């Protein structure tokens, strides 16, 4: 019997973990997940965008417009930062981070400072914004590899049915 041929590549698997993590986000507009992986293909950490611990997502604002104080932007931790902060190992040197949406400049600083050496992403929809342009400028200066993932498949179905196990 031959082995299965339709298995996930490592890149698809880790991006899938990042995408699955995004389903934990309670943000009504944008859900992003991140997965940090070491050189041995071991998951070091996972994160998603949301409020810091102790800051209730029922009490802090999810709005996108209005005074900055009354919008989510002053309060939400992005998926990349949460994954870095949630890491069980403080040494992320040489790791890769998988994130569906290209990192903003604030996350780029954290990625660089943590020693992550590669960013694997799917979408760069904000490529022309100053934030993303600044990210790319810093990544280039710091020697962080940027890889746009082009998966072989567009979706993976996760079936929780007991009869599928």
Give a description of the structure:
With 165 residues, the chain is an alpha/beta fold. It contains four helices and five strands, in the order αββαβαβαβ. The protein has a five-stranded mixed β-sheet with strand order 2-1-3-4-5. α3 packs parallel to α4. The radius of gyration is 17 Å and the shape is globular. The two termini are 21 Å apart. The model has no long low-confidence stretch (mean pLDDT 94).
Task: Work out the radius of gyration.
Answer: 17 Å
Structural class: alpha/beta
The shape is: globular
Q: What is the residue-averaged pLDDT? A: 94
**Largest sheet, described in full?**
5 strands, mixed
Helix content: 25-40%
As an assembly, this protein is single chain
Number of strands: 5
What separation lies between the terminal Cα atoms?
A: 21 Å
How big a fraction of the residues is strand? 15-25%
Order of helices and strands: HEEHEHEHE
Strand order of the largest sheet: 2-1-3-4-5
Number of helices: 4
């Amino acid at each position: 019997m031959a082995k299965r041929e339709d298995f996930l590549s490592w890149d698809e698997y880790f991006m899938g973990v990042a995408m699955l993590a995004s389903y934990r986000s309670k943000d009504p507009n944008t859900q992003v997940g991140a997965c940090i992986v070491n050189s041995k293909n071991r998951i070091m950490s996972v994160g998603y965008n949301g409020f810091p611990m102790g800051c209730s997502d029922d009490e802090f604002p999810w709005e996108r417009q209005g005074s900055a104080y009354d919008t989510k932007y002053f309060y939400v931790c992005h998926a990349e930062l949460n994954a870095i902060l949630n890491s069980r190992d403080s040494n992320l040197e040489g790791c890769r981070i998988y994130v569906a949406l290209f990192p903003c400049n604030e996350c780029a600083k954290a990625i660089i400072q943590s020693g992550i050496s590669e960013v694997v992403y799917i979408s760069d929809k904000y490529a022309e914004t100053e934030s993303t342009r600044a990210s790319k400028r810093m990544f280039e200066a710091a020697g962080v590899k940027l890889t746009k993932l082009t998966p072989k498949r567009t979706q993976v179905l996760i079936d929780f049915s007991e009869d599928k196990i």
